[in-house]
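Feature request, filed as a ticket because there's no other form

It would be nice if the structure record came with a short human-readable summary line next to the C-alpha cells. Right now we just get the raw output. Example of a typical job, pasted below so the devs can see what we mean:
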Amino acid sequence: MKVVDLKSFGRTEDSEPPRKRTFILLLLVTCVVMVGLSFFLWWVPYVGLANIHASLPWVLAFLLGFGVLFCLGGALTLLMTIVRGKNLFFNRKIRGVVIRILFPLLVGVGRCFGLSKDEIRRSFVAINNRLVFAESKKVRPERLLILLPHCLQNHECGIRITGDVAKCKGCGKCKIKDLSELSRRHGVSISVATGGTLARRIVIEKKPDMIIAVACERDLTSGIQDSYPIPVFGILNHRPFGPCFDTDVDLTMVETALASFLYDEADHSERSGPRDSHDGGAPKRVSGPTS
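Raw output as currently delivered:
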C-alpha cells in the first residue's frame, strides 16, 4: 500500500493545499483584537468607576487580565498541539473549543481580511484532522464509519445507493465500488448520505466511535461540528466537473486513514510487553503529519 503523509489530507487537485498557517494567523489576530478590546473595556469604566470606589478599576483590571491570560494560555496550548501533533495537558477537550467557539469566531475575523469561507473551511478541516490525529485514538473496525457524499456516484447510474452501499453493482464507473470493497476488506461500516440531515441520522443509528468523512469544504465543516464529540477525520473530495457532480476521491488517502486509526490486534499483542519510554507505548501511526 502506498503511504500518504497525513498532512496532505484535505487537499484537492483543483485547489491549493489547506494551509495550517491560515488558521494560526487568524488565531493570533483574534488574540490581538481580544487584548485590545479588553483594554478598551477596562479603560472606559476607569474614569467612572474611580468615582464610586478607588479600588474598582483595579478589580476590573485584574478580572479582565485573568480572562485574557486564560484565553492566551489556551491559544498557546492549541498552537503547541498543532505544531507538535501531540496532546498537551488537558487537550482532550481542546478540539471542542476549536469546533464550538474558535471556528465561528475566526470565520468572522477572516472575512474582515477578505478570506473566502472555503479557504477558512479548508484550514479548519486541516487543523481538525491534526487534532484528531493528536488524540491518538485507535478504534475497532466495527466502531469506525466511512461516510461518503452521494455525488461520488456516477450521475448515469440507475441505482440509488443512498444509505445502502450494498446495492452497488460494481460497474466501476465511480469510486463507490472500490470504497465498498475497501470497507469489506477492513471490516468497517460504510454509508452514503445525500445531505446533512441524512448524515446525522446515519451517525445516530450506527453510533460510531470515529468517522472518516469525504465531502466538500462546507459539508465537512458542518459534519465535524454536528458530530462532535465523535472524532471526524475529513478528506476533501475532488471536483473535476464542479460541485456535487461526479466527484472523486483519492482511495489511497482513505486507506491510509484506515491504517492509521484502526485498532490492530497484532500491533496490540506486540506492545503488550514493557512500553518504550519515548512514546509511552502509544500505537504507531502510518506517516503521521509533520510541520
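Something like this underneath would help us a lot:
The first helix runs from residue 20 to 52.
The chain has two domains: 16-130, 137-267.
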